[in-house]
Specification:
Shape: globular
Helix content: over 70%
Strand content: under 5%
Radius of gyration: 22 Å
Number of helices: 19
Structural class: mainly alpha
Length: 498
């Protein structure tokens, strides 16, 4: 059964109360950035908060960095249109993250590093470090940052008439300012604010959905089940659909995807010791799994709600706009502003994390290699300038992408991260799991994995959830074989053994 039919409509514009709420939200973010700008004096503080971040704050920030407007909008849209078959991606990613927290955190923590790419310099050489750092920067500026700004801006423009370019400019400008001025501490504390605001709004919206259906929660569960909306497991021997076999591959791939993710690992590197680092990763992943359940349920509840009130669904909407449409048209004035601020917050938490991580990569991995004698003042200056440039480029890219129309930005985002550097986590896997792999071999594996992934995306029907696994496994396989066949330039360091 499909979602209710949609007709043409005029967007419901925001009330003055909603604009006041949004103004106060943006002002509060700037205030947090200003507060922490007075306390930061070094690049160590700018990137890691001088390693004094409490694990609970770090875990919430980890969760915020790993969740974005993509989850806020695309996940409800998936279950509204179809069912819960895509839900397997959530436990696959979270379980992969738990493996990182339980067994692999110690590999990075004991090295006293700022970025995950510094590990590669110790395990392999500077060529591998710079290749990974370059791909990481390219992926963040050209992909993640622009997508997390674009998705809510397009939807809000559709359902409220709020100018898409104004939304992008507001998110980009405010986030860039507080991330540039307050550094990592401003990023993690605004993340706490953003998580509280986002999920308070979502819980309120769920309560309104439940109360808006005769029979409440029981009716939503019963109607959703009768319509097959809770169907979430497929054992079919099929790699073109979201089946159990696809998610098993995703699980193995995500272990090293998360280990290689600078914004996420930066949180655990900012804590005081290995115990707190482990707690950060474990709880951050558990929070992510819980939020996925919530967002998937929202989509099903929206389906039941509009099935019960078909006269209220009067808009021909893009798939990703159904939840913002409900927010703008069903919630009370003022409350709409709170929930929309939560939508902005979901985007800005991931945005600021990626900005600070990109600046850390540029200063630590590029300036640290190319200009090793740079003074602390020079490093801090480049850190702030990098954040500014990153914000400007990402805002410009999101503005450019606003001209494009795609069926599902979530699917496009998964394809992009798999293609651009998606295989590079395989280098971390080879570094951690083997002693035979060397720098030349893993470089060959990385570049080859891009070609393999491109071929799979263009010439097969393999599920988008499996593209990351294809990239990583091809990088590992080709990288290991190349390491066996090509003589090493020098002996790699053993960083695996205790």
């Amino acid at each position: 059964m499909t979602a209710p039919a949609l007709l043409a409509f005029s967007p419901r514009h925001l009330a003055w109360q909603d604009y006041v709420v949004l103004f106060l939200y943006f002002l509060l973010n700037l205030g947090i950035g200003w507060w922490w700008s007075k306390r930061r004096r070094s690049s160590g503080g700018f990137f890691l908060g001088n390693r004094r971040i409490g694990w609970a704050v770090a875990a919430v920030s980890f969760f915020a960095a790993n969740t974005s407007s993509i989850s806020f909008m695309a996940l409800p849209a998936k279950t509204y249109q179809s069912n819960w078959l895509s839900f397997g991606s959530a436990p696959a990613q979270s379980l992969g993250g738990l493996i990182v927290g339980l067994f692999l955190v110690r590999v990075l923590r004991r090295l006293n590093i700022t970025t995950v790419y510094s590990y590669l310099a110790k395990r392999f050489d500077q060529r591998v470090r710079l290749l990974g750092a370059g791909l990481g920067v390219l992926l963040k500026i050209g992909g993640r940052l622009s997508v997390v700004m674009l998705l809510p801006s397009l939807a809000l423009s559709t359902v409220t008439g709020l100018n898409v370019y104004l939304s992008i400019l507001l998110m980009g400008t405010v986030t860039t300012i507080y991330a540039m001025e307050g550094g990592f501490e401003a990023v993690v504390w605004t993340a706490v604010l953003q998580v509280v605001l986002t999920y308070s709004g979502v819980v309120f919206a769920v309560g309104f959905l439940v109360n808006g259906v005769d029979g409440g929660l029981a009716s939503i569960l019963r109607t959703g089940a009768d319509a097959g909306k809770f169907h979430m497991i497929s054992w079919a021997p099929n790699l073109t659909q979201p089946t159990v076999w696809v998610f098993i591959g995703m699980f193995f791939g995500h272990i090293f995807t998360q280990l290689a993710d600078q914004p996420l690992m930066q949180r655990m590197l900012a804590t005081a010791d290995e115990k707190d680092a482990r707690r950060t990763v474990l709880w951050g992943n558990l929070l992510g799994l819980t939020s996925s359940v919530l967002f998937f349920f929202v989509g099903t509840a929206l389906y039941v709600y509009y099935r019960a009130h078909p006269d209220r669904l009067i808009a021909a909407l893009p798939n990703d706009a159904i939840f913002p449409y409900f927010i703008a048209n069903e919630l009370p004035r003022g409350v709409v502003g709170i929930v929309i601020a939560g939508l902005f917050a979901a985007a800005m938490g991931a945005l600021s994390s990626a900005m600070n991580a990109t600046a850390a990569i540029l200063v630590t991995d590029f300036q640290g290699v190319l200009q090793p004698r740079a003074s602390e003042a020079q490093r801090l200056r480049l850190a702030r300038l990098s954040t500014l440039i990153c914000g400007v480029l990402a805002t410009g890219m999101a503005t450019y992408l606003a001209y494009r129309q795609v069926p599902s930005l979530w699917d496009e985002f998964l394809k992009l991260i798999a293609l651009v550097g998606g295989g590079f986590p395989g280098v971390f896997a080879l570094g951690v799991l083997t002693r035979r792999a060397h720098s030349t071999g893993v470089i060959v594996g990385t570049l080859s994995s891009i070609g393999v992934t491109w071929w799979v995306q263009h010439y097969t029907s393999t599920s988008v959830f499996l593209h990351g696994f294809v990239a990583i496994s091809s990088c590992m396989t080709i990288g290991y074989v190349a390491s066996v066949l090509i003589p090493p330039r020098e002996r790699s360091q053993d960083l695996v053994s205790p």
